[in-house]
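Shall we go through a protein fold together, starting from nothing but its sequence? Label the sequence line and the structure token line clearly, so we can match residues to local backbone shapes. Would you write everything just below, so we can both look at the same thing?
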Amino acid sequence: MTRLIRNAIAIVRNHRRAYVVLNVAYYGLVALCMVLVTSHPEVQALLTQSVLEGFSEGLFARVAGAYAGGDVLTAAVLTFLVNLFLGSVVVLLLPSLLIPFAGVAGGAVRAVLWGLLLAPTTPELQAGMIPHSLTLLLEGQGYILAILAAWVLGRAFVSPSSVGATRWLQGYGIGLRKALSIYILVAIVLAIAAVYEALEVIYLVPLMLPN
């Protein structure tokens, strides 16, 4: 496992410029949309209502129930599974297997939605975002690594020579192996983020909310 982690870190280092650009772009989009939505609170209200409706059934209802019931372990595990498999693999990686760089576009959409949904436009959100900001940083880092994986895959496919390949299909295979390697880091970061999120939502946020 140590060797796999080191290999994943080496891949990220080899794409340091793209990694830095993705960090600036992702967090920058979140911040920009937070600022913009303060002038249009009705947009945030509509999106929030839609999210709440989504958490009323299925797996998301189980996640919400774990948080509401104060079950830290279940909340952390379910949060991790949702973020890794649904938020990262399904939304970011799988589309990139068919359309180069699709995960980069998907990541941009996620950043926009985060900014619109989580902008501290009310006293409750302002208080809650104090501890939740670290969740955004940690979880965002997991998604940025997943976006980087999509970028690495796409670049290897459209430019096989960048990974020492001579054919598109060969470049695709090399890019996919590198992308899957990066997902080891994605899983680690999202696991840490899920544990913190469960703790802060269940224990810290209630302490910060106005009485």
User: Anything to note?
Assistant: The chain has eight helices and no strands.
